[in-house]
């Protein structure tokens, strides 16, 4: 029975081609950077959605009997605040900040819930945002590599 060979002292091992040094899937590692971009873009869209709701009550459809009924202006402020925070967290993920992953999962979850409640006002936009948030949550929860390594290697 043969023993596996060990590299000689001082010999280097072949580099692992996966982002982040080999821990986790390359899809998840690339997904984390993409999740940062999506959070940033989702935040910008949330800010625009919020400004539209605050500026004019006639931009979005009025709903008469709805369980989660707020005024369109109130929804505008909710989306504006969430959008600004999403922009900051998206930037944090792209910068490789350690706090940004956990904050990204929490804020993407809150944004998902807010857009689910916003569904009757703009169904297509809300569904697209929900899908983006689901991807962001998956990407941030499945990648185990160091986010700083991903940004540097890009």
From TrEMBL:
<keyword id="KW-0472">Membrane</keyword>
<dbReference type="Pfam" id="PF23636">
    <property type="entry name" value="DUF7144"/>
</dbReference>
<feature type="transmembrane region" description="Helical">
    <location>
        <begin position="75"/>
        <end position="94"/>
    </location>
</feature>
<keyword id="KW-0812">Transmembrane</keyword>
<keyword id="KW-1133">Transmembrane helix</keyword>
<dbReference type="InterPro" id="IPR055568">
    <property type="entry name" value="DUF7144"/>
</dbReference>
<feature type="transmembrane region" description="Helical">
    <location>
        <begin position="33"/>
        <end position="55"/>
    </location>
</feature>
<feature type="region of interest" description="Disordered">
    <location>
        <begin position="1"/>
        <end position="24"/>
    </location>
</feature>
<feature type="domain" description="DUF7144">
    <location>
        <begin position="32"/>
        <end position="144"/>
    </location>
</feature>
<feature type="transmembrane region" description="Helical">
    <location>
        <begin position="124"/>
        <end position="142"/>
    </location>
</feature>
<protein>
    <submittedName>
        <fullName>Integral membrane protein</fullName>
    </submittedName>
</protein>
